[in-house]
Design a protein that fits this description.
This protein has 545 residues and is an alpha+beta fold. The protein is built from nine helices and 21 strands. The strands form five sheets. It has a seven-stranded antiparallel β-sheet with strand order 9-10-21-12-17-18-19, covered by helices on one side. It has a six-stranded antiparallel β-sheet with strand order 11-20-13-14-15-16, with no helix packed on it. It has a three-stranded antiparallel β-sheet with strand order 2-1-5. The longest helix has 109 residues.
């Protein structure tokens, strides 16, 4: 017997007489295939006899738990590979596994274990996979092929949808480019029109000045000719008079009546300085056009820049406004024109706040609009919510709100305006609304709950602050501020709320809107809350429309 044959014989299981498959070693030292030794003990267990070793017949009180012989497994695996080289095996990567063999038991793969996601033989199914979800390979393969085919159909549908979207968005991109090209062309046309209008106005003004200049020059030339003629007459009269003085007395007296007297000197005309009227018109109109182009137009295009500037230029400052003792504003003030006279800004204030301060407006509450639970004090500069109706000296009016609201006397329809207020507690809404805001108690008539009002809702720490317009809420993540600043630019169409702390401003929210009517500051005041309108003594009280 050759050495290879002898080695092969010593590596055979004494039960199945084949090479060890997953060899296990017992305490007595003998080794067997995992399948063989367990089948041996299964038979003994059925016959209710002690568990024994098939070779030495050593008995065990309980079913042993043999250990895997690693070294023996490696040697047997080498021989097994040499043995399997003589057999044809499926090509690597082939999907046909019907003729493949199980590496554990060298049996045909006929089952698929869904639990372990692998193909198994019958022995595997009876042992390691007996509690798993197992299906025949053909059935599992058919099911998976159906799933894959359905996935391909879904993929085709998705591919078709994506292609349609690509085509759609390609057209949208082209349409968007054409639209923006037309928009840019329209904007350029507008600016060209403005430029041509400025050039035409410049030509008109210059021609007007030249016409006045020509008229003044003609008037001056005519007067100069009169002066020269009068000078000639004076010279002629002098010559004749000197000749007459040289005659005898008789000839002098006879010739004196014949001497023509000189007329009075021509009166100098009142020639007005040319260009005064034109210069006044230019100084009145062009600075406003320049302001609109340099300030209002950029702010309307990029309102967020103002917020960034506020954060960059914020500096610490102490409070600057105190309550004024000015009386309640009369409603007749609303018909007066805005003054261009700016207010003085206190020191230690952020640049943004200083810029707004020139447009500061001292506001007062309108007693006719105050709800019966809203008490006005401090000469109508403080509004407080009391739980009992307040005695009001103002007669009942259709202007009075039936909800917890009060409106200010001052309204605005153009220009830039800024005011500040202080809150006692965080249960208040503040904003602006058209004067036509209904006074009935329905929810849709509260500020921010309709299309003609805008509001900031300030609540406690437990709830988010928010802004409201057209009954749509946008929640804010902002800290609490006792002082609030409001900047209203009717011309640019913007309304911005600011939190004030230590002299600096933090933008809370900005609305972009077109105001078609005059807007008034309006407040909704919760129970036990109060709002104090901050007054600046340098602010012109008549600067309202």
């Amino acid at each position: 017997m050759s050495d290879a044959a002898s080695l092969r014989k010593n590596l055979q299981c004494s039960i199945c007489l084949d090479l060890y498959l997953d060899p296990l070693s017992l305490i007595c030292g003998h080794s067997y295939c995992q399948k063989c030794i367990h089948e041996h003990w299964d038979n003994e267990e059925l016959q209710q006899i002690p568990f024994t070793c098939p070779d030495c017949r050593s008995s065990f009180t309980a079913r042993p738990e043999p250990c895997k012989n690693v070294s023996l497994s490696m040697v047997v695996e080498v021989l097994r590979e040499q043995k399997q080289r003589s057999f044809s095996t499926p090509e690597e990567g082939s999907h046909n596994v019907s003729n493949a063999l199980c590496q554990r038991h060298n049996e045909e793969l006929i089952y698929y274990c869904r639990t372990e996601n692998r193909c198994t033989c019958g022995t595997c199914m009876l042992r390691s996979c007996r509690t798993h979800d197992v299906e025949r390979i053909k059935i599992q393969s058919k099911q998976e092929k159906v799933k894959l085919a359905n996935n391909l159909l879904a993929n085709d549908c998705q591919q078709k949808s994506i292609e349609e979207q690509i085509e759609e968005w390609t057209l949208k991109t082209q349409d968007s480019k054409e639209f923006h090209d037309k928009l840019i062309s329209g904007i350029c046309t507008k600016f060209c029109q403005v430029q041509k209008a400025l050039e035409a106005c410049q030509t008109l003004v210059i021609e007007s000045v030249k016409c006045e200049e020509q008229a003044a020059m003609e008037q001056a030339s005519d007067h100069l000719m009169l002066l020269q003629r009068h000078l000639g007459e004076l010279k002629k009269h002098r010559v004749e008079a000197e000749q007459l003085l040289q005659d005898t007395d008789t000839a002098f007296l006879q010739g004196l009546p014949l001497l023509v007297p000189v007329a009075c000197a021509p009166v100098s005309p009142n020639i007005r300085q040319c260009g005064t009227l034109q210069m006044d018109a230019v100084n009145r109109v062009l600075p406003e056009i320049t302001r609109l182009l340099q300030d209002e137009l950029p702010n309307a295009l990029h309102p967020e820049i103002l917020q960034e500037e506020n954060k960059e230029t914020s500096r610490t400052s102490s409070g600057f406004l105190t309550n004024s003792t000015s009386g309640a504003a009369e409603t007749s003030r609303t018909s007066r024109k805005l003054k261009a006279e700016p207010c003085r800004a206190p020191a230690n204030m952020s640049e943004c706040r200083v810029r707004f301060y020139k447009d500061y407006r001292n506001l007062t509450f309108d007693p006719e609009t105050a709800h019966k639970y809203i008490q006005l004090s401090h000469q109508d500069c403080r509004a407080s919510h009391r739980t009992r109706p307040q005695k009001n000296s103002v007669p009942e009016s259709s202007k009075r709100f039936q909800s917890w609201q009060v409106m200010c006397t001052e309204g605005f329809s153009e220009g830039s305006h800024y005011w500040e207020l202080e809150l006692s507690t965080f249960f208040v809404e503040l904003g602006v609304a058209y004067g036509s805001l209904k006074r009935t108690p329905e929810i849709e008539n509260l500020i921010g709950r309709n299309s003609y009002s805008w509001s900031l809702q300030v609540r406690s720490m437990m709830m988010h602050h928010s802004v409201w317009h057209n009954n749509k809420e946008s929640k804010l993540h902002a800290p609490q501020y006792k002082k609030i600043g409001v900047h209203l630019n009717c011309t640019a169409g913007s309304l911005t709320f600011y939190g004030i702390r230590e002299g600096s401003l933090e933008c809370l929210h900005s609305f972009s809107c077109l105001f078609s009517e005059k807007v008034y500051p309006v407040f909704w005041i919760g129970e036990d809350a109060s709002v104090t309108l901050q007054h600046n003594q340098d602010s012109p009280m008549d600067d309202v429309l």
